[in-house]
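Note to self: the last two entries modelled the partners one at a time, which told us nothing about the interface. This time every component goes in together.
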Amino acid sequence: MSEILIDVQNVTHHFKLNRKTAICAVDQVSFQIKKGEILGLVGESGAGKSTLARCIMNLYQPTAGRILYKGIDTCDRRQFKEHKKMLQTKRQLIFQDSTSSINQRMKAVDIIAEPLRINHVHTPRGSARAEAEFQLHYVGMDAGCLDKYPPELSGGERQRIAIARALSMEPELLVADEPIASLDVSIQAQIINLFKHLQKEHGFTFLFISHDLAMVEYLCDRVGVMYQGRLVELAPTRDLFSNPQHPYTRTLLSAIPLPDPKRERNRRKGVYDAQKS
Amino acid sequence: MTEKDFELAGIRTVEEQPLRAKRKWYKEYPVVSMLFLGIMIVECFFCEQIMTVNPTYMDLEHCNVAPGRKFLFGTDTLGRDIFSMIWYGGRVSLLIGFVATAISTAIGVLFGAVSGVASPRADAFLMRAVEIVLSIPNLLMIVLLQAVLGGAGVIGISIVIGITGWMSIAKVVRTEVRQIRNSEYVIASKCMGGSFWHILWRHFLPNFWPSIMFMVVMNVRTAIVAESTLSFMGIGLPLEIVSWGSMLALSQQALMTGSWWMILIPGCFLIVTLMCVTDIGNSLRRDSNQRQSNL
Ligand SMILES: Nc1ncnc2c1ncn2[C@@H]1O[C@H](COP(=O)(O)OP(=O)(O)O)[C@@H](O)[C@H]1O
Ligand SMILES: [Mg+2]
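The predicted structure of the combined assembly is written out below.
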């Protein structure tokens, strides 16, 4: 349980806007994820969460820093090439926006089975179609959707197809970039339970990016808070929610509405000012 | 996995209702053109069964015979039976049309896709190259290539026509690929380890296929026309290889002797085929435009 799966060391990522200016989307971020752990990553939009996720998935090359996956430096071209196949199958990314992350001209069955086809994986369930159907069931949809095209499905169904695609490879590390933001509440709960089940029974490791603090509190073992590209706080979930250290975390937590109307009326919402502190 | 471990919250089967007013099937397709072209292709394919005499046999006793009972469409100046030649030569013409189109489509798609995924500088270089080639008149290029490659056979001429007709397809493919190459599903596919071929086949092709469909069909037409033109000018297929173009090549002599059937009959077949192909191409374009506006 304590084996470190992924080790992010001082990762910095700049986006070059033009020759003179660059914005620093991720700034000196370091953290580790243990095997079988769910690490939450919260922060307001524009905090650099997606950029960090993409750096971890080798979609962006970090400007500085290293990312070690099981001791393999994935930012190093040579080491990446050497372990390419393993890295591509064992780490999967669920994109934030399902409308653009699945091909509108492919049937659901082909979308879900795409990674299997690419990597020529033979599944225990026989054909790729059977596997797709199984995964679709896993995320709570029936087989009738298998032959539909994404425009015929709702946003939540599309997102679940994207999740099923990532699950079909049975990865070790699943980076989920706001996977439930576009789902309605009952399906959110179902997907969260599914993630928890995958962690408990199958030992999946998650990097769970979200801005839904309640979900993060329920699901994650540890939570990192990002603000303006920096990881300002990283603590076990219970500690972070009961005893936040960083002022930005306190502000963030104070934004959670309380279920009790009386206490809600007296709740003080903080405003965090980076310059002041 | 045990299904009971977590409850599936929202499985709900959606019943499908059949559409009431479906458009009549014959209004969606260019039926007449498809029928004509289909008959033409089938008859050319099975020309052995249809032909009354050997089309290459020169019956020197019956030169320049007008259409009649023995020779349905007459004979040409070399005494060959035109009715048999039509089917036999049609096979060659259509074959050239399809093979040349396959070659030009393959080159165009490949070149366009490579240019589309290349870095901006390489892309600019490749596209300028295409424009330079495109600015050379097509027929001139075919004639030049033909001269370089020497002897003309059916396959040789298909290749020559094929490798001179891919540029416009490449340009369209390149534009489409550049648009979708940064979309997330392509990135996702790359992230899962999808190779260039996989992405081309699975993601790019379905996306740009509707846009180039029309051009592909029109390439069939262009190839058939190019073959006829070349043969007519005497630099395509030699007279021994029967095709619609090489049949027309006899027309100069035919005009002098006043044998209309030698020009008119192969000409009609050629024109009808071309019109059918054009019609199918046009309806494909209409179709894809409509479907895109439905999305
Ligand atoms: N492709 C890009 N080019 C330039 N800037 C970008 C790009 N992607 C993200 N950014 C910038 O990087 C910052 C972090 O973005 P992102 O990681 O998407 O935030 P989050 O996912 O936390 O909402 C933002 O300020 C955004 O404007
Ligand atoms: Mg994001």
